[in-house]
Amino acid sequence: MSEAGTCQQLLEEYAPQTGLSSKLEPFGCGLASTATLRVKLLKNPFLMAPMAGVSDAAYRMMARAGGAALAYSEMVSVAGLHFGGAKTWELVVPKDPEPDIAVQLFGSVPEQFSEATALVSERLGTKLALIDINMACPVPKVVRKGEGSALLDDPARAAAIVKACVAKAAVPVTVKIRSARRTGDHEVAPDFARTMEQAGVAAVAVHGRTASQLYRGEADWGVVSRVAAAVDIPVIGSGDVRTPADAARMLQKTGATAVMVARGSYGNPWIFGNAKRKLAGQDAVEPTLTQRLSAFACHVRLLEATGAHLARARSLSGWYLRGLPHATVWRERAMHCSSADEYLQMADALLAYARAKEA
Question: Which of 313, 308, 319 has the alpha carbon at shortest distance from 345?
């Protein structure tokens, strides 16, 4: 059985038990125009953020099944693509039945971005929805190389990178930024976003923290508002979107066109559909315990089908089992699982408990 058949059949068999959809709707942005991208974002403004070590194909499929308009790859090194690393390409190429994907690139050399954009565009074809450039990553090993959030201190290089990508892309090119490099610094995000707009980006995503905050403290949504007021292109808000209500409120309070959901999607692929309901003034539809556990089992099956390292299921168990009675005991059991069958046996035991409780 092909991978395509496996993943699609898994979704068709197991998604109905989770309250998620078995059909993954394409984002289908196509042309590299701000107008087209804005229309797509207004139709469904809730996106699954790029997350290193998290947003693999299985995670993306679960998010899309939950109603995310678009899902992003993990950060992809342009240097890795330049040197032809097979492991780097594994981060880029979507799995069937993913309809399309946003690929996030990082690096510091404009020529490598140009090459990477051309290579990714050729390899993915119509499955490439957009190219995003990471100018937000705060991790020291990235920043030390002049990559990620280090580019906030070098707008000329950042603009050259954008122009290099735009020249090779047939899809929209976007950037993700933070408010500034260091807490206490002058807020650079609005001016920086204007520079990126002039360089040709179709949208800018803004995380409301400085790079030095990492993921600590509270995100300042005011930064998103100020960037939205500074540019004419769509702005995508990011930071502390933990619930469907948070996602809807960010749109309503900041003037952003769309919202990226990151940690709020941990063990909660339903957040995207529920955010759409909240935005429409409807009540969220919370998954039952049986649906949560069925989603965990479905996610594990997709991990196995896509060839992902099953150690990732340990994190999934912590997220999906959060709040269950004796969750600590079950998470400890998950730490000793080494195969999909062992995770699924654990899920079956929990499902028996859940069904008895819900009967």
Answer: 313
Instruction: Give the pLDDT confidence of 96-107 residue by residue, as tens digits.
Output: 899 999 999 999
Over range 161-179, report the average pLDDT. Answer: 97
Average pLDDT for 3-30: 88
CA atoms of 138 and 244, how far apart (whole Å): 26
d(CA 208, CA 248): 16
β 46-48/258-261 pair status = parallel
Structure tokens at 94: 């979507």
For residues 329 and 53, give the distance between their C-alpha atoms in angstroms, rounded to a whole number: 25
Q: Is the dihedral of CA 35, 40, 45, 46 positive or negative?
A: negative
**Which residue out of 137, 165, 298, 337 is catalytically annotated?**
137
Q: Place 2 in a pLDDT band, splitting at 50, 70 and 90.
A: very low
Could you give the CA distance from residue 324 to residue 157 in angstroms, rounded to a whole number? 49
pLDDT of residue 225: 98
CB burial class (10 A; 0-12, 13-18, 19+) of residue 79? middle
pLDDT value at residue 186: 86
**54 — phi, psi (to 5°)?**
-130, -50
Q: Is the pTM of this model over 0.70?
A: yes
Q: Is 137 a catalytic residue?
A: yes
Least confident range from 24-33, 126-135, 141-150, 250-259: namely 24-33
- Half-sphere exposure for 353 (CA within 13 Å, toward CB): 15
240 neighbors 208 (Cβ within 8 angstroms): yes
Question: E strands along 192-318, which residues?
Answer: 203-207, 235-238, 258-261
What does the angle CA 357 – CA 358 – CA 359 come to, to the nearest 5 degrees? 95
